Each structure stands twice: as C-alpha cells, then as structure tokens.
C-alpha cells in the first residue's frame, strides 16, 4: 500500500507534537497507528503489524476488549471523576484495593494509586523516607538500584533508573542514588572463588550498603526481570540472597512490578518465582492493559501500620490518584486476568516462544543468547559468540534487525543489540510461530 496517508499525518504531527524520547530523525520514518485488534496494530496506510511489545509491555489483553471498554464507559457515564484525597473515596477504588490484596504478596494489603510507573517510583521513594523518619531513623534516605534497571524518568525515578543515556541532558542528578551491577547472567563476571554467580551479584548490594553506611540507606529497588534494560532474568539464588541482605541491614526491598506484574512472567507477580516477599511493590501498565493510565504502590502491613499509628498525614498527592474510571477499568482487567488465567497462558506461550527462538536462532554465530521468562524474551546479538565481544555501536545491528522485523510486519523495540519480544498474553500460537519466523528471517537478512 502507498505510504501517503501515513506521511501526511507525520507531517502534521511534526508541527505540534513532542514525543517521549523525542527525535526528529527517528520520527520522520515513524508509524501512525489507527487501529488495533488483539495482538495486531494497523497503521494509517492500512498495513497490519504484530504488536511485538504489547504497546510498551502494557497491553497484555490486546486491543478491542469489550469488557474494558464497557467498564470505562459505564463509569464515565455514572461519575467520570471524583477526588481521591483523604476525605473522599469511590466504590471502584475500594473494589480495586480489595482485589489487589487477594492477588499480591501476602504481606501487602494497602495500596496508593498513581497515573503510571514513574509516579509509582517517586511514591515509593517518598514512602520509604517517610517510614524511616517515623521509625526514628531520619538519615535513612538513600536509594540503591541496579545498572540497566528502568524505573521511569520523572526526576527522582530517572536517578534510580540505571540506564545512563537518560541522565546527561538533565544533570545534576539528585544526590543519594547508588547503582550496583546487574546480575546479567550473560555478562556478569563473578570474582574468583565466589559461591555462585547469583550470590556474587547479590553481594554487590551488601558492598554498596557497607560503603554508604547502612544507617543511610532507605531502600533497594529492583525489577524481578529487568525489562527495558534487556529482559535480564536473574539467577535462581539471586533474590533470596537480596532479601537476606535487606533484612540484615534494615533496608526496604522494593519490587518494581511495572512490567512483571499481572502475569507477564508466568506468575502473578515476579518475585513469586523465587519465593521472596518485598516490603513495597509498584505496578502500572498491565493493570489496565494500557486502556487507562493507572499505576500504584502496595505497602507491607508493617509500613501501613507504622503510617496509620503515627497520626501524621503523608504529604504526597496526585490529582488522579484513585481515578474512578481508571479503577473501574483496572477492576475489569483483573477479572479478565483471573478468568483467562494470564499467568498460566504467559508461562505456556512463553515456553513455546522461547523454544522456537532457540531452535531457530540458537546456533547462529552472532546470537549470543536467547533468554526470557514467561512471555518476555530477548535475543542478544554479539560480534563474536565465543568471546561475547559486542558489535561496535556505530554498526547499529539492533536498529538494522528492528528495521527488518518492521518490513516483515512486526513492531517492537531494542536496546543496543538486544531485541525485545513481549507480545500480548492473548497472542495465539500461529502468531507466536510467525514471530519466530520473522526473527529468523530478519537475523539472516542482517547477519547472513
């Protein structure tokens, strides 16, 4: 089909819109999406693409879910908005809190709602600082996170995010944010004589706490599987050791479940894979399948009790906290997740996708690793498989692979030379198999 319709819209777009990660050059060859159904998106020219990243990891139920549309429409007609500040509530927010308490970690039963993941990071940083002040430890303010961790880009969240390209334009960063190495099983080098790679990577946290002084560290924030940093699945002994270290030094463990929450990894929440309970969680994205901007934090019973017994208000507030329309859609989405068993679907489909990718690409001399957990996978391209030598940045291998997948009808994202695949959980097997074919064809086209 001709590209005229899309090109005309992109011209109009350029006159007035500034985009996330704004780049005039990148956007000149961008897409304008006008329709979506299930795991597919349709552009302005009428061409159909597999949504290889569920929008931005969030649209797990795919487009066109009537239950979500109806829940939102009904609430909009009844009462589109009311304040959620202390002194006001609404039935949908109350119902959402009840539903979340049933499915989150057993020690987490109270929730504060936001508009998305970055706001949730900021909310947890403030909650952690507030908690330690109430506990008589006001010096505990520092945040430890990981290199390649992604926690959003509001100013505090950006300081926690460990992908350095997000920093230089906006520095100086807020003091008191420390980054430790990622456990990245493909690249992390454990010191000689380490008990295991996972324990060594977790012990980086202990080193950082001791270097900073345990009495100054408020929290450690980590994604169960690092998402935007490269779909990095940790070693099985990593998080149990992290929990031990946090307990030993009185540091709150914050699980960033913005991508991993609500079934994506094959469990309802990510740390369930390793039997670990966090003190705070944060979520967004899949809680509404992207049909409405909604996120939140969940706090442990101990933190909630400390807050409620203090008698001091928590001076943190968002106009759209507990937005009734967002909460209505989230309630409907949680029903879909439960009824259609999204965690089991993601586990089963993820296995099919991962096995397919390994069979198709596992022997390619430039594929260093095919990895994943549940329905989030990545293919890591390297110059030399034997030595793990990476391609020069100017080779733009990841971008070239991405262009080839787009030409074959799949839209996704890359970081450097790691290509991400996290389609909607509702994606059917034929589409999963087509994804594997597209990856194999695109790899061959770029790397032979």
What does this protein look like?
This protein starts with a helix and ends with a helix. The strands form three sheets. The chain has a seven-stranded mixed beta sheet, with helices on both faces. It has a four-stranded mixed beta sheet with strand order 1-2-3-13. Strands 11-12-15-14 form a four-stranded antiparallel beta sheet, covered by helices on one side. By secondary structure, it is an alpha/beta fold. The chain is globular, with a radius of gyration of 22 Å. It contains 14 helices and 15 strands. The protein has two domains: 31-52 and 341-447, Aspartate Aminotransferase, domain 1, CATH 3.90.1150; 66-339, Aspartate Aminotransferase, domain 2, CATH 3.40.640.10.
Helix/strand order? HHEEEHHHEHEHEHEHEEEHHHEEHEEEH
Described by strand count, sense and barrel closure, the largest sheet is: 7 strands, mixed
- How many domains? The number is 2
Determine the CATH topology of the largest domain: Aspartate Aminotransferase, domain 2
Number of helices, where a helix is a run of at least 4 consecutive DSSP H or I residues: 14
**Which class of the largest domain in CATH terms?**
Alpha Beta
Mean pLDDT across all amino acids:
97
Low-confidence stretches: none
Number of strands: 15
Rg (C-alpha, Å): 22 Å
């Amino acid at each position: 089909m001709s590209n005229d319709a899309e090109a005309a819209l992109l011209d109009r777009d350029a006159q007035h819109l500034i985009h996330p990660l704004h780049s005039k050059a990148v956007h000149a060859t961008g897409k304008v999406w006008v329709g979506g159904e299930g795991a597919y998106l349709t552009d302005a020219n009428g061409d159909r693409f597999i949504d290889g990243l569920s929008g931005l990891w969030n649209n797990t139920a795919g487009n066109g879910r009537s239950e979500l549309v109806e829940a939102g429409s009904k609430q909009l007609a009844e009462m589109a908005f009311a304040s959620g500040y202390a002194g006001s509530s609404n039935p949908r927010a109350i119902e959402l809190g009840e539903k979340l308490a049933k499915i989150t970690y057993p020690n987490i039963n109270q929730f504060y709602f936001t508009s998305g993941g970055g706001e949730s990071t900021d909310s947890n940083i403030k909650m952690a600082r507030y908690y330690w002040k109430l506990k008589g430890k006001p010096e505990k303010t520092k945040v430890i996170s990981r290199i390649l961790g992604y926690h959003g880009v509001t100013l505090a969240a950006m300081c926690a995010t460990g992908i350095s390209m997000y920093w230089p334009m906006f520095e100086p960063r807020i003091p008191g944010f420390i980054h430790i190495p990622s456990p990245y099983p493909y690249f992390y080098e454990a010191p000689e004589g380490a008990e295991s790679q996972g324990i060594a990577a977790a012990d980086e946290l202990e080193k950082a706490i001791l270097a900073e002084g345990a009495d100054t560290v408020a929290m450690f924030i980590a994604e169960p599987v690092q998402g935007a940093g490269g779909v990095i699945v940790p070693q099985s002994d990593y998080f149990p050791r992290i929990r031990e270290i946090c307990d030993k030094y009185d540091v709150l463990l914050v699980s960033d479940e913005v991508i991993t929450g609500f079934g994506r990894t094959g469990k309802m929440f990510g740390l369930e894979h390793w039997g670990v309970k966090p003190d705070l969680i944060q979520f967004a994205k899949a809680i509404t399948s992207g049909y409405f901007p909604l996120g939140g934090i969940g706090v442990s019973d101990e933190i909630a009790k400390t807050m409620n017994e203090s008698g001091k208000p928590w001076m943190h507030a968002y106009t759209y906290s507990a937005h009734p329309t967002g909460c209505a859609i989230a309630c409907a989405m949680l029903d879909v997740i439960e009824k259609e068993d999204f965690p089991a679907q993601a586990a089963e489909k993820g296995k099919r996708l991962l096995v397919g990718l390994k069979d198709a690409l596992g022997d390619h001399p430039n594929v260093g690793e095919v990895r994943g957990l549940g329905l989030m996978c990545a293919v890591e391209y390297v110059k030399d498989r034997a030595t793990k030598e990476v391609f020069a940045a100017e080779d733009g291998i990841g971008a070239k692979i991405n262009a080839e997948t787009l030409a074959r009808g799949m839209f996704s994202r890359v970081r450097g030379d790691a290509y991400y695949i996290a389609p909607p959980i509702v994606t059917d097997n034929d589409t999963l198999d087509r994804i594997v074919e597209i990856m194999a064809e695109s790899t061959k086209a770029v790397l032979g």
